[in-house]
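Quick one, T. Sequence first:
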Amino acid sequence: MHGQNEALDTKKNALRRFLARKDIVFSARRYGIDALGAMALGLFGSLLIGTIFKAIGLIPALSFFLTIGTWAQAVAGAAMAVAIAHALGAPPFVLFSAAAVGYAANAAGGAGGPLAVLLVTIVAVECGKAVSKETKVDILVTPFVTVFIGGGLAMLIAPHIGTAVSFVGKFIGWATELQPLLMGLIISVVMGLALTLPISSAAICAAIGLSGAAVAGVVPENATGLALAGGAAVAGCCAQMVGFAVMSFRENRWGGLVSQGIGTSMIQMPNIVRNPRIWIPPTLASAVTGPLATCVFKLQMYDAAINSGMGTCGLLGPIGIMLGWFKGEYPHTVGAMDWVGLVLTCFVLPAIISWAVCLVLRRIGWIGENDLLLEK
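Structure tokens:
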């Protein structure tokens, strides 16, 4: 028995050394933060920039941007997978082979394409890393293993992931239509928190399809509810970014206003860890603006779902809503109240509420001097 235990320990140690040598780390941080965040970057560099190009292409003299935007959006799956592979430390052959894996998973995943890309790519890349440079015919073995496993998983599980995501989307759409006040509050707060945390709210919104826009020409069930949920997500994400930018203006001045207001509120995370109370003002703002978005102003996302999780990053959340107005899928004529609601929900109210609540918390000592100061 003692000999068997020693042999087992030897095998375990050998496996640990092999995994360490291959930089294969099974952890929630690597897959849930690093890989997910990288996937969002892949989306930004393909689907999102393609959306912006297509918006520019609406200008008659610049219609060629439509073509460029269409091409950029077409490689979203490959871009996401390559970004994930890079975050996982994939060697070159694995990195390049991941493009085919991402394309396959995104195509087979349908509505759940981004989530399918994330899961399938992680498995394929880790398997590719395991065999990389282990044979004299690495030029054949590594891409074969990576693409075979990735393509096989795409065929086996990606359609089911798409079905599951569609179900989640249907539920969110149904619940938002049934309870717009409650769901508007929940979605706004949760997505706003996700935007500031070191995870990707944009990737989450893309993965669960928070938009009423047609996917591959198919309009989702409960499209209106999903569009409202997307609007609530935009409101929550804007509340975090605008809120932190305005309430920390005393400490960070114009540089902080820009870096947080159109960059990301994630840079406040070190300060949140030191004093979680600084998160109260923008979170309360999102709890107010989310229900206003769903119940009063009826803000709806009919552009790419990724925009729902962008907030004011590059102004892409509000731009996504505006693009939805001009795509022909928006259910009613856009009027003055739509514009008023967009400005109030995304900019004015988050600034006022966050500033006012922060002022109260400063006076009672919950937020101290330089608690919001960004690290240089």
